[in-house]
Fold 5'-nucleotidase/2',3'-cyclic phosphodiesterase.
Amino acid sequence: MLTARLTFGLLLIVGLTACTRPAGPDAAVHDAAVRVAANNVAASTDADWQLAIIHINDTHSQFDPSPAKVELAPGEALYTFIGGHPRLLTKARQLQQRAQAAGTPSLFLHGGDAFKGSAYFELFEHQINIDILNRMQLDAMALGNHEFDIGLPKLAQFASEINFPLLAANVDTRAEPLLAGVTNLKPYQLYRQQGERWQPIAAVEQAEGARLLAIFGVALEDMRTMVPDTGALEFSAEITSAQQTVDHLTALGVPHIIALTHLGHQRDLNLATWVNGIDVIVGGHSHSLLGDFRHWYLGQQPPYAQQVPNPDGQGITCVVQAGQYAQAIGALTVSFNLAGQVTACQGQNTLLAGRDYYPSALRRADAKLTGLALSRTLQQVQQLANTAIVDEDPLLREVLDTVYLPAVQQAYGTAISSTERSIAHVRLPGTGGSDQHGSELAGHIADAMLNYVNTPAVQALVAGPVQLSLIGAGNIRSHLEAGTIYEGHIRLEVLPFDTPLSVLTVSGADLLALLQQTISATLPPGAHAGKFPYGSGLRYVARQEDDYSASVAVEVWQEQSWQALDPQREYRLVTTNYLANGNDGWQQLQQAQAEQTDRRDIILLNGQPKAFVVERVTASLDSRGQPAFTPLYQGLTQWPCGEPGVDCKTAAQAVIDHLQAQPDLWQRTRPATVTLYR
C-alpha cells in the first residue's frame, strides 16, 4: 500500500492522470484527471467481454410508490407517484432480459439500507424486508448503517434468512456472539458465470474453468458514531481493508472484482482514488441520484458512472449509485479488454414513473388526468431523459396489498392536520429543488420540539425555560404530502425512530463549534448530509469557503429580538438523545458532557412525560480505535423503550401536538432560520 501511495504521489507531481482525494484542496486536479480518464475509456471500443450491473440502494422499506412532481413544460408541474418495489422488480427483470438477449451476464445488487423509513417497516421490521427482497432475487447486498436500527438479534435473523449474501469485508464479527455464527454475513462472495447469470460458489476451485468474479462489501468505518448498538463488532479502515481484500482475491486468481459499499459517494470516490484493482464500486448511503433529474425536481448530481484512475496509474474504477427510496434503478455496462482491464463504463439511472397524473398536489382520484390529456402526458413523460414508465409487478403488488397493507392503513390513526401543498424535506439546502434555506419541514419540527419542552408538564421535569432546538436532517425520514395528515404520517414516516428528547445546557462556544463542524462535513461533493443541522430559537447564515469548510454567523432569539450568539454564555438546548450523545458527527455535544451535564432525557410513560437524569456521556474506543458514545443515567441501567406503557417517540408526539394546536400552521409563512450560501 505504501508503494502504491508513493507511486500515486509521483504521478501527481509530474501532472499525469492520477488524482488526489476529491474532497481536498486538489479537487480540481482530481476532476480533470477523471475527465481525461473518461475520455480515454470512452474512446476504447475493443471490448472482449461485457458485464451488466443492475443496482439499487437506500430503499428504506419504501415498498409503495413515492409522491413526486414533474415539470413537462416551463413553470407547469404535474403530480404523480414514482418507484416502489413492484416497479423496481419489473424494471430489474426487463434489464436482465435485455442483457440476456445481448449475451451479457448480469448482476442485481443492493447498496445497503433496506431498513427503516416507512410504516411498513415500523409494523413488520426486518420480516417484510426478508420476504420482499427474497422475491426480488438479488445477487448481493452491502451492510448499511440502518440495518442496525432494530438491534443485533434482528440483524442476525435478517442476514440468516435472506437468499443472497450480506457483505462487509471490514466488519469483524468474531467477538460478537449474536453475529459470529451468521455465515451469510461475510466479507465477499465468489461467483462463476453460468450463461447470462452468476452462480455463487464457496471456493475458486468450483469455478471449473468458468469465468470468475468476486463482490466484496465495505461498511462505514465510523459505524459506532452513527449506530447506538454495534455490540462487540469491530470496524476496520475502509481503504486499508478494501486493498487487503482486493489483494487477497487477486492472489486467489479472481480477475474481476466489484466493491459493494455503503459509504457515500464522496467516500466511494476516495476508495477508487486510493485502492488498486477494483473494477466497479456500487455504492449507497449518500442517496446520490447520479445524473440530471431537474425535471423531476430532484436536482442535478455528478454524472453517472464516474471513472476514477487508480493510484497505480493503470487501472480505472467505475463508481455508481442510484438515489433513494426505490425511486430509481441503475443500469451499468462494463467492458473489459483481453487483459481483463476495464475499457468502458456506460449506463444511467432511470427514474421509474407511473401512469397516474394529477393537476394538484392533493392528488384527488376524481381529478386524475384521463383521455387525451393523459395520453399526451404519458408521451411527454416517456420522452424525458433518465425516465421510464414502468408498470408494477402484479404478484409483488398483490403480496403487499393482501399481506401487509391492511395493517399499515389501520396504523395511521386519527387525522391531525391537512395541507393543500407538499411540505418538503431536503437534507442540504440548495439540493432537491430547494433554495438556500433548505427544508421547510425540518424547521417546523424544530419549532415543535422547542414548544413541547416549554410546556408546563415538561418544564416541571427540566426546571427552566429552553431557548433553542436543533435536529439533524437525517433524523427526518420523509416529507409531508398535500392532503390529510394522520398521526401515522408523523410517527411512521417522518419521525419513525425512537427519539426521546434531550434537554441540556451548552455554551455558546460549543454551539458555534457544533454548527461549524456539522455543516462543514456536509459540503464536499457527494458528502453524507444527514448530520446537517436545522433549528428553532436560533438562526444562522453559513457560507461555504473554498476548502468546503463553513463560516457560520449565529443569532439567538432572546428578549424578543435576535441577538448575536455569545460564546461565553450558556444556553438551554433541546435535541434528540441520539444527537445529544454525539452520534452522526455531533461529537461536540458528547465532549461538552464528558465530565458532567445537567441533561434530562424525556420519554412518555402512559402518555405523560417522564425525565431521566444523565450524569455524563462517555466516549470509548474499540480495539480498532473507533469511538462509541454512552450516556450514563442516574439510577437506570437499561433504557425502557419497548416496555409496556413506554413511548420513546417523544419528538414525533411533539410534532403531533404542534400540528393539532395550530390548524392554520401551513397557511402561515415560517421565517427562515437556516441560510446556506455555497
Q: What stands out?
A: The longest helix spans residues 119-136. The domain at 413-676 is CATH 3.90.780.10 (5'-nucleotidase;  domain 2). The first strand starts at residue 49 and ends at 56. Confidence is low (pLDDT under 50) at residues 1-46.
